[in-house]
Amino acid sequence: MPDLAHVLRSxxxxxxxxxxxxxGESAIDGILAAYGEPHRRYHGLSHLIYIFDxxxxxxxxxxxxxxxxxxxxxxxxxxxxxxxDNEARSADRASAELPGLGADPGxxxxxxxxxxxxxxxxxxxxxxxxxxxxxxDYSILGAPEDVYDRYAEGVRDEYGWAPGLLYRQGRxxxxxxxxxxxxxxxxxQFETELGDKARANMxxxxxxxxxxx
Length: 213
Prior knowledge:
- With about 210 residues, the chain is an all-alpha fold.
- It has helices at about 5-20, 25-35, 45-55, 65-75, 85-100, 105-115, 130-140, 145-160, 165-180, 190-210.
- Helix 4 crosses helix 6 (about 105-115) and helix 5 (about 85-100) packs antiparallel against helix 6 (about 105-115).
- The radius of gyration is 17 Å and the shape is globular.
- The relative contact order is 0.10.
- The model has no long low-confidence stretch (mean pLDDT about 95).
C-alpha cells in the first residue's frame, strides 16, 4: 500500500510550485496530522486522495484551481463528530494560514466561503468551480455499492460514541433530506453520471437503518 501521507505531501509541493507560493512545510505538516487522526474512518488521508483524484479529471474545467485545491486541503481539517461547527472552524483555519502561504485576500475569502458551503452541499456555492468541488466531495454517494457501504461504515465508526438509536435517527434524517432534493448534484455532469446511483445507495442505507418510505 502506498504511503498516503507521502503521496499527499508530494502533491502539496507540486501545487505550491505551480502557484508560486511558499513551500508551507508547517501547513502541510498540520494538514497531514489532522487527517491522520486515529478517530477518522472516512474523513482521513484516503478521503483527500479520493478528492484530488477526482479533481485531476476536472482540472481543465476549473477557472481557479487554487481555490478548489485549498478548499480540498482544508475542508475537513477540523473534524469532531461531537460538534456542529466543523466547517466553520475549518474555514477559519484556512483563512488564518493561507495568507502566509501566498494567497491574496480575495482568494482567501473565496476559499473560506467554499469550505463553509460544504455544510450543506446541495445549497450550492457561488459559481461552477464551487459546484464542481461540492459535487466531488459529495460524489461518494454515487459510488459502487461496496465502496458506498465502506463509506457508510466509516461514518458510523466516526460516531462510535453515539448510541445506535441516536445515530440511526440522525443518519436517517440526513438521508431522507438528501433523497427529497430535486437533484442530488449541482452540476449536470455529476447528476447525469451519479445521480441515480446516489439515490439508490441512500435509499438502500435508509431502509437498512429502519427508515420507512
